[in-house]
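Input/output pair, single chain:
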Amino acid sequence: MTAQVDLTAEEQKQVRQILGREPNEVEWGMIDIMWSEHCSYKSSRPHLAKLPTKGERVLVGPGYDSGVVDIGKGWAANFKVETHNHPSAIEPYGGSATGIGGIVRDILALGAYPVGFLDSLHFGSLNSPHSQWLFRYVVKGVADYGNCIGVPTVAGEVQFDKSFEKNCLVNVASFGFVRKDKIVQGYAKAPGDVLILAGGSTGRDGVHGVTFASRTLDENSEMDRPKSPRWRQSSTNTNCHTR
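Output:
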């Protein structure tokens, strides 16, 4: 029996071997989420492992919301990089904006003050109407979110190549600063700790929004677009500073 998940046949076989039985529907759903590209970085983990992560100036390394390094005189810089490729390929405005929201959240989560965004964007041929559409709204999503919270995009790059026609690459980064004695790390230390979740309503993809990252995009992927996008592409306000 093949489970209705985005895991490969080999991964499903491995799950059954680990548990020694057939997982139930809830277990399949949880494993599908935790083994997704979004949560486990299956494809990039071997490459990320090659990067240096320890040193005298590293205050917070992998495993937390964002990295933090000592820059001297009691100050530290922290940074976060994220890809939002699949979401942006289906819903370019909301996908890229949500990517920006995710990384600025991870800067704030350690008590730092975000001061800038960067991006590296890759699309298909600019002669393609589809790529023009993706380009226009990905850039708008990045810009609008940054403008709305008063954080500028200070650097970036754009590449156009036919290899990105079906699946654009949207890489975004954020950085900020924090006093070393003000770094905050979130821990769930004891039973009874309160967890508060805040956000928009769940889309029609339900809890499987993260497993979408493990799928291969095809002509049916349009069905994965949220039924009621949180970010309206008709918006023209790109100067909504809140400070």
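Residues 228-243 have pLDDT under 50 and may be disordered. The chain has seven helices and six strands.
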